[in-house]
């Protein structure tokens, strides 16, 4: 494989981690892969499965295919940490979504074993950032993709609502989605409109954000009601507020319909 990215003055480590979840404070790495590109064109790879020391949630396994049995005999992160830390010393870093996901998870894992992993002084190249900059996901792009024309009058309210309606209509046809608003809403909405919550494999309503990501709303209500009270002071949509109020009142949220 030849790479167009050239003029390397020091190694470039392209990395990816698979994890038990998305919260650096609570979740753990179960696999890491590093492709190191070196000046002169040489490249070498590194891949390790890691026993996270905690159960891997089924929702995470559904994403990356790694279950508890797959890492039962794998080393812990602590056992690999110093070798990996040395491998990533004095290199620039790259990946897809690496700045917002992989590096925070990796930094947290190193911190747990007493190693301070720093990005200052390195080049950090995130392919997802380039993708977002060069392939914008805005209404004008959607009109070109689904309707096949330029969106004239962008950011004019009248033009934008007409374009949005046309794009939505084309999406329903292109993907054979339900044609009635209620049915389409049910298809697109798991728990709440803004996706602050989701249902896990046990159909419990769990947090999809923040420090309790992946944890049951009912359980958090019993353990940390102050967090839910804080949520009620924020600008969450009313469907989220309704669920939070229900949980604070001791009314089960799992197994019931959305508010």
UniProtKB/TrEMBL annotation:
Q: Can you tell which superkingdom this protein's organism belongs to? A: Bacteria
The GO molecular function terms of this record are: 3'-5' exonuclease activity; nucleic acid binding
What processes does the entry annotate via GO biological process terms? DNA replication proofreading
Against InterPro entries, the record matches this protein to: ExoX-like_C, Ribonucl_H, RNaseH-like_sf, RNaseH_sf
All residue ranges annotated as the Exonuclease domain in the record: 11-177
The record's GO CC annotations read: cytosol
Q: Which CDD domains match?
A: DEDDh
For this protein, the record's PANTHER family field holds:
DNA POLYMERASE III SUBUNIT EPSILON (PTHR30231)
Task: Write down what this protein is called.
Answer: DNA Pol III Epsilon Chain
**Source species:** Fimbriiglobus ruber
Taxonomic lineage from the root: Bacteria, Pseudomonadati, Planctomycetota, Planctomycetia, Gemmatales
